[in-house]
Amino acid sequence: MRIILVGYGVVGKGVTTILSRRYVEKTRDVGFNPKIVAIADIDGAVINPRGLSPEKLEAIKQRGFPISADPDFGRPGISALDVIESVEAEVVVEVTPVNIQNAEPAMSHITKAFKTGKHVVTTNKGPLALAMPALTELAEFNNVYFRFSGTVGGGTPMLEFAKRCLAGDKILSIRGILNGTTNYILTEMSKNHVSFQDALVNAQKLGYAEREPSMDIDGFDAACKVVILANWIMNKKITLKDVDRTGIRDVSLQMLEEAAKRNSTLKLIGSIEGDRATVKPTEIPLTNPLCVSGVLNAVTFQTEFAGEQTLIGKGAGGIETASAVLRDLLDIRRKLATKLLN
Ligand SMILES: NC(=O)c1ccc[n+]([C@@H]2O[C@H](COP(=O)([O-])OP(=O)(O)OC[C@H]3O[C@@H](n4cnc5c(N)ncnc54)[C@H](OP(=O)(O)O)[C@@H]3O)[C@@H](O)[C@H]2O)c1
Which entry of 56, 103, 202, 298 is 20 to 30 Å from 163 by CA? Predict the structure, then answer.
C-alpha cells in the first residue's frame, strides 16, 4: 500500500513511527505492506516512489530544516495538492491543522484525493464537521474509502466500537466527555477548588490547552465530534451548525460546590438524543461511569438490547492518534483484499 502523508507534525510523525514499528508484525499477520512514498508539509515535500526513511527526515528536521531540504528526494515549494495529484499512491493520510471556518487546507486535500481515486484516512475534524454528509457521498461516488477514526477519542476506538461491536444492536442515544482539555479544567476546579482562569492557565502550561483556547472551552471541538458520531453511528445528516453548543466559560466554583452537595459534578457533555445534538455543561452523578477525571474521554452508548456501554480512554496524543490511523489503514487493506476476492 503506497501512502502519501500530508502534514508532518505531532500526528504525522506518530504515523511514520508507528508504521515502522508495527510494519513487520502486520506484514506477517495480514499481508499489510505500507510504503510512504511522499510526505508534504507547508514548505514542500519529499517524494520517493521506493519509500522514504523517517529516520533521515527526522534528522533533517532536528537540524532545523524543512523535510523538503532532503538533498536526494526534497521538492521545496511543491504544494500538497500537486503531490496528491501527481504521485502514484493508494492512500492519502491527511493530518494538517484543524480549521472550522472553511476546513482548509484539509478539505481541498481530501477532495483532490477522492477525485484522483485515492482512499483517505484523516484525523482532521474540520472537513467532517462542516461537510460530512457531502464528503461521504463524494467518497462513495469516486469509489474510494474514507476513514477518520482518530477524529473522535484519539486512539480510543469509539467510532469502531459503536459501528462494529454494537452492529447487532440499535444505538438509541450517545453521551460523552469528548474533550480532554475541558475535562481537565472542570476536574481541577471541582477537586482542587481553583478558579476557571487558573485551571485554564494550568492546562496551557501543561500543553493541554492552546494559547487561543476557544476551540476547546467554547465547546467547538466537542461539537465537531458530536457531528462525526451522529453521522457515522446514527446515520444523521448534520453539520456543526446543527449542534446546540454551550462551553464551560460560565461554570463557576459555586455551581460545582452545589453539584457536589448532591454527589454530582459538572462535565461538558456532548450528546445525540432523538433529533437533538448538543454540547453543554451537564450535572452527572459521581457514580456515573462517564464521570472520568483529568484529560480522559468517555462515551456511553445507550442501546436497545445490550443496555449502556461505556468506553473510556485518552482522547489525544500523537502516537495514540497515529494508532487510529494504522487501524484505518488496516481496515482499508482488509476491504480492498475482500473486493479482490469477490
Ligand atoms: N495531536 C493530537 O493529539 C491530535 C489528536 C486527534 C486529532 N488531531 C488532529 O490531527 C491533525 C494534526 O494534528 P497535529 O497535532 O499533528 O498538528 P501539528 O503538529 O500542528 O501538525 C500539522 C502539520 O501540517 C502541516 N501543514 C500545515 N499547513 C499545511 C498545508 N497547507 N499543506 C501541507 N501541510 C500543512 C504543518 O506544517 P508546519 O509545521 O510546517 O506548519 C505540520 O507539519 C489536526 O487536525 C488535529 O486536530 C490531533
Answer: 103
